[in-house]
Amino acid sequence: MPQIKIYQEDHIPSPASRIWSAFTDNPFAFAGLWAVVSLLLLALFGPFIAPYSPEHQDPHALLLAPSWDPAGTVEHFLGTDDLGRDIFSRLLHGAHLTFGMALGIVITALFLGFIIGSISGMMKGLKSSILSHLLDALLSIPSLLMAILVVAITGPGLSNVFWAVGIALTPQFVRAIHQAVHEELQKEYVTAARLDGANPLQIFWYVILPNISDTMIIQTTLGISAAILDIAALGFLNLGAQAPSPEWGAMVSQGMDNLLTAPWTVTIPGVAILCSVLAINLVGDGLRSALSPIRN
Amino acid sequence: MIRYLIRRLNLFLATSLILFIVMFIAVSKFPVDRIAALTGVQQPTAQQITRITQDYRLNDGQISQFIAYLQQRLDGDLGLSSTSQNLILDELTAVLPASFELGFFAGLIAVLFGIPLGVLASLSTNKITQHSIMAITLTGYSIPVFWLGLTLSLWFGVQLGWLPISGQINLLYEIDSVTGFLLIDTLLSDSKYALSAFLDALQHIILPAVTLAVLPFTVVVRITRSAMMTIMEETYIKAAEARGLHTSTIVMRHALPNAFIPVLKNLGLMLGAFASYAMVVEVIFSWPGVGAWLVSGIYQRDYTVIQGGILSVALLIIFLSILIEIMHTALNPISRKELYAAN
Amino acid sequence: MPLLDIRNLTIELDTPHGRVKALERVSLTLNPGEIHGLVGESGSGRTLLAKAILGIPGHNWTVQADRMMWDGQNLMEMSARQRRALMGCEMAMIFQDPMSSLDPAISVGAQLIEAMPENKTISWWKRAADKRINAQQWLHKVGIKNTQKVMSSYAWELSDGECQKVMIAIAVANKPRLLIADEPTNSMELRTQAQIFRLLSKLNQLQNVSILLISHELETLSQWCDRLSVMYSGQIMESGPTADVIAQPYHPYTKALLDNIPDYSNAEHHKTMMHTLPGSAPALQHLPIGCRLGPRCPQAQKHCVNQPSLCHQKDRYFACHFPYHNEPCHDEPLTKS
Prior knowledge:
B: mainly alpha; 77% helix; MetI-like_sf (chain B); dipeptide transmembrane transporter activity (chain B); MetI-like (chain B); Peptide ABC transporter permease (chain B)
């Protein structure tokens, strides 16, 4: 017997569950989330799944086309490059470098940006503007220039990419968090909390932090996609990951020599970058629209 | 208003000073001889060493050294390129216009196509139109620019053979540099091939400019769309409708001026990313601009080129972003409201 | 012939909780040259009604009506373009919040000039100047002295009262026949309120503009209006000439509203409770069965679970089974259930 509802009672969902239901209502965002989760798994376990090692050269299979091409074989699913290395395995190994490093950079930048941004945001007057404008100068150096500067000092290499992109990203986080904190401080409920006798730490922790978390989430998704693109661009320009490395941008640049004869050596890593950035942007977009009714 | 302008100028000077400090520290960390890092002179004679030591006060303390460094740089002395032994300033003035040309074209494409498409996306009630425009912009936003450039040149340059894929102009044309901007120079030139040279230069700029325009284009579309969506729900739009104005009048006169404000603001914020993208595009299409020059400088470990390039580009970005902010305030009466309220 | 005659207007809204009837079977008659007051609590659907009359529906509305006659033409059958044309010159509306009804990016003067009618009799190059003079005259008429200064300012530089005057000038510049004023004095001080109401009443007398005045203050409305309609929860409860309604309300809700008006004649004892209805207005997704006032009504009886229909008696309309004048409506048989 179906249950009869006698009383019209509204179930009022909590903010988190409302965001979740708004997020899952958007099929694209949900698909993006699945893609990001699988990328994350690939970044962690990719090397274990990969059929070959990234440097394994098969002299009998140079520039082999992908398996859907008549000339391709299933052994090398996405084909091979000019040294006979399996592109599929290299992609799996590269996920760790490109995607994993982007995550690492963003987490570090978020951490630093959160600390500096909230301190400078909570302070007033000259101190605050010195702290925030100090990083404006760094913000005005494009990430690629920053990378060139770092490479000029330390020489090219994957670890330098970490510093270069990190230094370029941190000011963005600082600025976003500084502005969010600063805007929140103007709100009436902060004044009300202050009149209640809350000290700055309490105001920050209980009043401001819950209201800037959405800014932080959105900035993080933006940061990850920017970091992936930057790491790949540096790899492409040979300023980051060096030649044999399976970093995706470097793979594109290694494939450049055979662009005309074997376009898949360029296309496949490019598509991999595109898909992972697209997935993150889909998630970010979905989050933004799910959060927006709460933000306004 | 004057107070506001002075504050912006102050911000510009302070930010530039910090930039110079960062560069000064970076120069001292370059893995070469300090004299070579500062001036680019490779095997200096004893005479040169004493002069450089004197100019840069290399025997004094760090602060005194920094002041000397600042003086030299502000005098326009950026040193010599260690590979070509030309003055950095001359090389810069040779490559900057090409970058400006490319950036200007890309920005123009982005704004001219982006704003109408954004308005269209916001006004369309058709779900398919909306979704497809959003899908295109999201893809454009996620696409790695180097890969896009390669793919475009592969398709349009190699396979279809429609457009040239490298350089600024066919090398057969000899164009005297007057303004440095090639498109203007070809028109000014009195050679009888001036028009065909102009068309050739135009063909050369299409692919790089389109590649570079993808990022600002998608940003403009998205910002315009979201701004228009919020504005069309505002009371003053409803009030304008209640006055019986035509929808196109409302969009043109009331919604667009309001929607343009956040677009301008975001264009300012995007400058850094835009410059990064421009460098990659220049490298791919062998465009003789600052980006390609800088990247070749780093390949050759030409530290004075790196310094000069970074300084000029960063200063330019600081200047442009402050300029955009001032424009934003000047064009936008609402931001003056804050100034008005503050006084 | 009435200027505006609405019968059984129903507006349904699509909300995340499903479709709700925000306005149900609302009937309203407005004669030329009268000020008609529409009183009700916030959320009772007054603004919805105003926007539906004007023709600027929201994106999630479904509007249905038996008829909406505007001067002999049926508004329901008109195209959007015709409605828009009608909005410009025959109907006008002023909004609750005058400051946000003016475009912040354009000066007030430019918006005023934009709203001025084109004078087709003079040559086109003189029209711009003519519009400008016209705009200044209208500003002067609504009681703004320093017209030059106001015209060159932006909306946020003016006070609420000034903005509302500008809005009125914009609204009446085309000489509309109906002006819908949706809480024109919301959040304004008393002196400004009085100015605005006096202005509206003067417009009504001099230009013969009909005004639909929306407010939640019965007291203010009773001073300025010829006729009064009382809304509750998306339905018209009672309607009639102001003096009659005030003197003898038929509907318990009207009576409750009248009792709400503070009485300063010292007839009440010290610290007496103010008369209010128990409970609060129902949410639109949880409407009671039958009469929407039912659960709160002091006169409610068993029969009230049937929805009362609006009935007409000598210039008065009311929707109640047990009205205060003890003459139940004869339009509907009491033993319907």
